[in-house]
Fold these 2 entries.
Entry 1:
Amino acid sequence: MRAWPLVGSLPPAGPFLSACAGTRPTVTPVWFMRQAGRALPEYRRLREGMGMLDACRRPDLVTEITLQPVRRLGTDAAILFSDIVVPLAAAGVDLDIVAGTGPVIAEPITSPADLVRLPALDPGAVAFIAEAIRMLVTELGPVPLIGFAGAPFTLASYLVEGGPSRTHARTKALMYSQPALWHDLLDRLAGIALTYLRVQVEAGVAAVQLFDSWAGALCPDDYRAFVAPHSARVLAGVSEVPRVHFGVGTGELLADMAGAGADVVGVDWRVPLDAAAGRVGGRTVQGNLDPTALLAPPDVLARKVRDVLRRGLAAPAHVFNLGHGVLPETDPGALARVVEIVHEWRAPDSDAGPP
Amino acid sequence: MRAWPLVGSLPPAGPFLSACAGTRPTVTPVWFMRQAGRALPEYRRLREGMGMLDACRRPDLVTEITLQPVRRLGTDAAILFSDIVVPLAAAGVDLDIVAGTGPVIAEPITSPADLVRLPALDPGAVAFIAEAIRMLVTELGPVPLIGFAGAPFTLASYLVEGGPSRTHARTKALMYSQPALWHDLLDRLAGIALTYLRVQVEAGVAAVQLFDSWAGALCPDDYRAFVAPHSARVLAGVSEVPRVHFGVGTGELLADMAGAGADVVGVDWRVPLDAAAGRVGGRTVQGNLDPTALLAPPDVLARKVRDVLRRGLAAPAHVFNLGHGVLPETDPGALARVVEIVHEWRAPDSDAGPP
């Protein structure tokens, strides 16, 4: 049952899709970025001795890992287990995901000639993700499945730097020095991200999130000139499902990230959520508990969760999440407590439950 | 000649101190964070085969390295060559600065018992910096020398994590879980930073900068509760010179960092400088060119420098700088071009020079 776009008077199914549609449900929905991951012992067992890319390509494993946190925690949405470089590898880019480091690109892109190493993505090359999604939609029943892709800038940073970077210096140097190459590169990456998301939407995901994890490294003028149009193209291509747009350290970019075509804007923990709500043009906000709050004692954690919930009232609707991914050292019990607190909480003017 | 606090009708000496005092000079002053460093070939030659801590402890080398960028670039201020962990090492903390990594702490702080490894700083243990400053004041003549220290939070992050950290997870976990230990730790670090700055002020620096490089990892509530009072204590202890307060990714913290006792607020490149000016309560702003802009072609660089200068007009006065330290891969020629552009530029309503 697809509840987006709203058809006639049918309400969206469940709190997550309702909040995405801008209608505040009685119970605030909650899921966690990287909820399917190293914080869960059942995940670590399943991944033992298996490379990340290998795991991402096996529909049975993708399905099982995606289901694990939903089973254990009762989150209001599942997020597909994958990695933002999976479609790059499927398109033929020579890369690996190295434990403890992240994606490592064999031959970084530095000149126009290098673009031959970045062909379009054949949807058939990611058939494994479509298969996993079809299994997941059946398994999940009413729980919505969120698909995702990396945004063009963040993918470009890996391809240009050759791996994770603290400064993104080579990426920005290329952007400033070779704007034609830059826009060609981002156009190709937008095409790959969009193809990857189309495969996911057609296989049945209920929403998508575009991760522009490193966009916060840019000043607003550069974001607008060099990045936003490419992300907008990706988001425009999947307008039949709710689209979440997220990055880290994006306090000054929230209005532009909303304007790029988001239905929901993901916010990191640096910006108080009520302040963020004022920057995203009346859209639903998602976030934004500091992931390190899960390492705090229960009373501190509970206070911080409720503070985020209260601030979320400044937006039309709020999807509770962390401000970035779950840290591997997180106790799953803390994740469960957060779900419980969020689900018990009610907006002050509501009389449907405890305050 | 100390021009701070303003005495009678004497104007502050030179554009840097004038801007610090909130009076816009005709020519905008410029210096660069990490101007004395790896971008300069004469620095790399001098440091060859010599450890960072060793170099920081030799007054002759500190003097020479501090002078190098002033000679080559004609900046309006010198910044003392040192490292924020130098006073920790002088207080007896077992640490090293490892090339390519950063500070590495032999025994990280995790419990109250560990605080015995963090005694007060004996001013005599940093006599080398006083000696370097006395030599520098003579050598520099009218060019003001800026001293600096690391702020308590940033120092604490190194001590708790054991080295540089992407998430500061252990630091924040300790902060949330053991608030008494946290405040004791930050109080000791504030004492060390203040002693280090007092030595510098008494030896003759004309201004100081408090580097809270990683404060931007905190949400505003945590910054106010756990960090600001300790930084404020440090800044209050050196009120006879202008105080610059700087951190990276601090868009949401600028008002609090100003309120902690800054005369000048340093701004990273993520926040447009005119927006930053609106957040710092009428104080002078310092910044905020993206350090990667120095890797751009000359026309792009020039446009970006002038954009920063124009936005700086929103504050009473502006000290031009980068939004973070000079990247090691920077061409010194680009630094020289920036100085030239800044010095040639005039505010639009001024008729003292070219637009």
Note: The two ends of chain B are 33 Å apart (CA to CA).
Entry 2:
Amino acid sequence: MSSEFELIEIFQHIGAEYYKQNGIITGPGDDCAIFDLKTPIVTSVDSSVENIHFPSNASPEDIGYRAVAVALSDIAAMGCKPIAFSLSVSSPIINESWYKKLADGVEDIAKEFEIPLIGGDLTKGPLNLNAIVFGTPFSEKILMRNKAQTGDYICISSSTGRAKKGLDDWINNKKDSEYLTDYLRPFPKIELGKNIVNFASACIDTSDGLMADLEKMLKASKRGGLINLDDIPITTDINDINSGDDYDLCFTIPKDKFDNKFFKIGEVTEDLEIKLISDKGYDVAIRGYEHF
Amino acid sequence: MSSEFELIEIFQHIGAEYYKQNGIITGPGDDCAIFDLKTPIVTSVDSSVENIHFPSNASPEDIGYRAVAVALSDIAAMGCKPIAFSLSVSSPIINESWYKKLADGVEDIAKEFEIPLIGGDLTKGPLNLNAIVFGTPFSEKILMRNKAQTGDYICISSSTGRAKKGLDDWINNKKDSEYLTDYLRPFPKIELGKNIVNFASACIDTSDGLMADLEKMLKASKRGGLINLDDIPITTDINDINSGDDYDLCFTIPKDKFDNKFFKIGEVTEDLEIKLISDKGYDVAIRGYEHF
């Protein structure tokens, strides 16, 4: 058994080599971390609760990686570059090796995106992680979810339902499933955000389900959408449009910017409704993840 | 029973009137909030877990107020001005009125310090709040905990042990105790931080216990201290020097800056040891709050 101080030390130096390049003049170890940047800063927090955001038998490495990855997806949705993160961990576990494994997973994603851990909190309690992420714009522009324009194409970049399939395969103990990674180690679409930031009109990440998040983006933009279900790349079946955890970006672009490396799934309409059409006879309603 | 979306709406507009004055160009409602400031930004996160940071029978108003207040104390310790906060709430409660009361307490402190809520997360799970706070310097200088100088006076601003007495009185159902507020609604010492920032050499907030936090500050400064226990203002008995939750500031100042509105409790020494002396015969060791 280790002291709180010893456990904190396991995390304290993650990504310390990136402080300077990312404008961090004080990392963990004081009452606050300090950013010194002349650019705007974007920030978001995402919590990961055992048995809700990850199964209780997930490895500590995956739990750590995933907690930070899902938060970084919000930075991707803004078309921004991640620069740092904090991690608050409540855990009932007293075994030091568990924390070392958790820190290994956190370090994997920190190195992937060259971002340092700049602070956090460690308390005893039911397992609950909160990742706070920070980013700066790649360009002058920051992507918002409320600027979709009538006539824009609605796009995604990959098949929906991959994470749901990954979770199902995990539960069913299919250890060699290619989808496990989609669920356990989602890869935030930072590159995609960077690529579309200058011509996309609006963007959101798909965490609660493609349709539920698309609905939020269109609602924020005071627009509707005509969605062709036949054009949505799915993994298992059409219900995948309501599966959460994909962490893709759903974005709107002017027609003339369309590139067939994206999947066009519909168009933005003037009225506030979302209409789902299908020649294949798909019949499905919009449903998002509901915590309460 | 309310949807997650309806519950989020209860919090979304807290302090919205302060966005502009505090450099926030996007508040809650997008994937990230956006700061646009040309100054450094300080940030910290503090978690509040039921039965560890607050008793399970505390009112939702006090739970909300306290969660943000204790995090703001870290901004005070940096000699900075709070500008915004985010709040991540995991809760098993489905009763909307509980969230409204929680939001009332959060709003009380948001108004007190003129800071808006800029984001957060709401998930189902064991009760756990994470407050993320942001600040900017009052002056050019930011206070650190690692700059205490040999010969500096070590000071605090109020009696230690008040919060511990408040918690004891709460547990013993002494509803008219003047100390309840010290525990349930600690008042972050932002004004004190502002007053001392330009001449204090180092500062830390006292959350884990006066002696434990003083020890951290001296260790970070690679210094020791000679502490006169007789000079420490206490509430109940000398063990108060190890009581947590006071959220006062403990700071070091050059001798010639001493002002008797502060309590001088000792001096910074060159060696790394902390020596406790007493003519009254006090005999007590340093002990901090240990989560694990």
Note: Chain A touches chain B through 63 residues (CB under 8 Å).
